[in-house]
Structure formats: C-alpha cells, structure tokens
Amino acid sequence: MTLIKSISGIRGTIGGKVGDNLTPVDAVKFASAYGTFLKNTLQKEKLKVVIGRDARISGPMIHNLVVNTLIGLGIDVIDLGLSTTPTVEVAVPLEQADGGIILTASHNPKQWNALKLLNAKGEFLSGADGAKILEIAEAEAFDFSDVDSLGEITINDAYMDIHIDEVLELPLVDAEAVAKRKFKVVVDGVNSSGGIIIPKLLEQMGVECVKLYCEPNGHFPHNPEPLKEHLGDICKLVVEEKADFGIVVDPDVDRLAFISNDGEMFGEEYTLVAVADYVLSKTPGNTVSNMSSSRALRDITHKHHGNYQASAVGEVNVVELMKSTNAIIGGEGNGGIIYPELHYGRDSLVGVALFLTHLANLNMNVAELRASYPQYYMSKNKIELTPQIDVDGILKAMTEKYKTENISTIDGVKIDFPTEWVHLRKSNTEPIIRIYTEAPTQEAADTLAIRIVNEIKAVAGI
C-alpha cells in the first residue's frame, strides 16, 4: 500500500486506485479535510492559505487540484507556484495567512508526492490537529461554498527572493565577509526548486556557483535523498572544479548536505554540528536534535557552555522541545537546520548562509573544519519481523536488559553507553525495528549494531 496517512499530512505514489495511492480523488479529499479543519477551528469569515510546490513531475496536477479544492471551500489562496518547504513556512506569517500547504514528497523518488500541512505560524501541525484532519477526511464531512462565496487566487512568485532577503538580513549572516573570500561552490539541486534558490542565494553572497542538476524539471538524476551512495557526480565535480565545497539539497530544500573540498562527504550529521558551532560561538545558548542524531552536537554545545537535549524523532517534536528549552538552534541529523531567529522549520538556505559565514571567519578549508569536530560514526540497520511478533514486548525486554544504563523511552528505546549509544524504534506502518548506533569508530558502531540485532532476534525467537 503506497498511500500513507499521518498526522503530518498525506503522501503516496501517483496513479492507481483511490485509497491505495495518491490519486486526484485522494488529493481533493485531504485538501478538503484540511480546509474544513481550518474553517471549523478558526470560525473566521474569510480564510487565507499559502500554497507552494517542488518541481516533481506530478506537481502541477496535484497543485491545481489542491488550489481549486480550497477555492471551492471559500478559502483564498496565495499561490507561490514553484517553491520550497522553508519558503512556504516563511511566507505564511508574512502573509498573515491561516495556514499553508507544501506539495512535496521531500526526499522520496519521483513517483511520490505529498501534502505537508502548516498552521498559521508556518509550522507543521501538532499531532492532535493532524488527527482531527484525518477524522474529517474519513467522515468526508465537507461543506463547500456557494457560487458567490468561492475563494480567490493571488499568484505571488516573489517569495523565493523574499526568503533569500530574510536570510541575508539575519545578524549572524555576513555576506560581505563571504564575498571577500571569493568562494567557489558546486550545487546539486536534484533538478528541483533548490536548483533555483540556492544558486540565487550564493550569487547574492558573492560566491561563484557551479551548477549541477539545477534544471527544475522534476526528472531526478539520482535518488533524491542526499546520501553518500547517491552523490558520486558532485563529489567528483568538486575536485575537478577545485571548488571550496559542494552543496546538496533534497527536492523541497529542507535537508542540506556538504561535500568537502577533497570530494568526501562532510556528513549530513555534521551539517547541524558546524552551523551550531558558529551560532553558539556568537550567541551562546541551548540546542536540540532528535534522539537518532549524532552525539557531536551535544559535545559542541557543551564546549560553548550550553545545554543539549534530545527529542523524539520528527520535526514537530524537535520544535516543541526547542521552544520549551529556549534553544537558539536545533534540527535533525539528516541535514535539517532549524534556526528560530528566522522561523521554526528546517531550512537549507539558513544553513548555507550560516555555514558560509562560519567558513569565511576561519583560516581552514572544509576538510580541515570537518576534522576539527568530535569524530563519531553511525550504523543504521533494521530487522523485519513477522506481524505475529510483539514488537512492544521486544522493546520492553531490551529496556529491562539494559536497565542499569542511561535509558530513554520517549521514542522507542535509546540506550546511552559511556562512549556509544543505540536507538531502537518500531515502524508505525510495518513490523520493523530500526536500529541506529553511534560510536567513536565505524567498526565499533557496526559491532554494537550486530550485537543488538542478535539480542533482539534471541528475544523474538527468530
């Protein structure tokens, strides 16, 4: 089944049967549920929603369906057209809108698309609000407007430029210092909207930009998740061009990865570490990442005399903990930078601008910068179980086995050992336990993962 309904939105593959895939009927149904939720909750005479999309092939079709569904509900739409997730998040409060929808399946392949749903702050909906939308969709409790009360569309294609301006105006972004360094950077925009907005940002910061896959046609030239095994072309081009580093974003530009000047991966986990290092050096404070993210952020935070905390996995959970701890920067180890000075959402533009400013202030290249940080290595694995196996029972047994260690059960089971950790999480959609480990060497991370896998199999009797 390739239609996934969750509290954060709906995603699925294009085509196929209604209810099993993201068909036009499903797109209309969930747009109707979201619009109805806003009307029921806010009880305003006129509502306004911002909509943008990434460049994937199905984007225009899904975009037209969603926009016109909201119009049919009597809701006005600010249509950003081709955009990015963080751009829509920035636009919602600037437009004083009541919500927003980003049409993107993020790092998923081209056959996927999704509706990501925002509140009036431009932040992802809470779990409770997401659950209400799913209930409305299930009941199909929609009440559309009559002909005299239809919504209106306002097209505004200036928001990518506005987003860039907002980033450049941040106090910790120093475009002049960056321009003086005359950096040369290769950008892989995976043929989506990042291929437009990242080069524009670089040019305004005085950086020479070498474009790779920056045509926003939705034909992803490689798997769009910015992982090492997908990025051979840019790693090679950074070396050939003698570039200072490379930038990779996913299709909706909320995940950011760097390639060092030697053509090696800087490491998605270390995107947040490097940016946080710079931010904390100028504005000391607290940080947050999720439980599956590197311990390196904790180390950097402590170096700057701040307090680090880990949230459950998921951007909504990271943001909630950031707010309650007054964190000045946070995010996820998948290359997601959340900098509240601009907005509470993962934003590759903020990450790029802060990283460039950081580099401009240092007398070292990107490979040397990476080597200066605490060295950790991760191993990511999963065990597929039969539906009959009690996954919760397995996690409880592992918690009991390691009860003398530092354990958190906020999100699955996280066991913190003195020099390494393991995080066990069950899938919400299939009988799988995901196993993340981190240690000071790759061998130690792999060895810990193998040990935990074998222990889980012993408990499960497989």
Question: Which key phrases capture this entry?
Answer:
Alpha-D-Glucose-1,6-Bisphosphate, Chain A, domain 3; alpha/beta; 15 helices; TATA-Binding Protein; 7-stranded mixed β-sheet; 462 residues
Explain how this protein is built:
- The protein is an alpha/beta fold.
- The protein has 3 domains: 3-157, 3-Layer(aba) Sandwich (Alpha-D-Glucose-1,6-Bisphosphate, Chain A, domain 3); 163-371, 3-Layer(aba) Sandwich (Alpha-D-Glucose-1,6-Bisphosphate, Chain A, domain 3); 377-460, Alpha-D-phosphohexomutase, C-terminal domain (TATA-Binding Protein).
- The protein contains 15 helices and 20 strands.
- The chain has helices spanning 24-42, 59-72, 85-94, 127-139, 159-168, 175-181, 194-204, 232-240, 268-282, 296-303, 315-325, 348-360, 366-371, 391-401, 442-460, and strands spanning 3-6, 9-13, 48-53, 76-82, 99-103, 112-118, 153-155, 184-188, 208-212, 245-249, 256-259, 286-290, 308-311, 327-332, 336-338, 377-384, 406-408, 413-416, 421-426, 432-439.
- The chain has a 7-stranded mixed beta sheet with strand order 1-2-6-5-3-4-7, with helices on both faces.
- A hairpin with a 3-residue loop joins β14 (327-332) and β15 (336-338).
- It is globular and about 65 Å long.
- It starts with a strand and ends with a helix.
- The relative contact order is 0.10.
- Keywords: Isomerase, Magnesium, Metal-binding, Phosphoprotein.
- It is an enzyme of class 5 (isomerase).
- This is Phosphoglucosamine mutase.
- One of its GO terms (molecular function) is magnesium ion binding.
- It holds the Pfam family PGM_PMM_II.
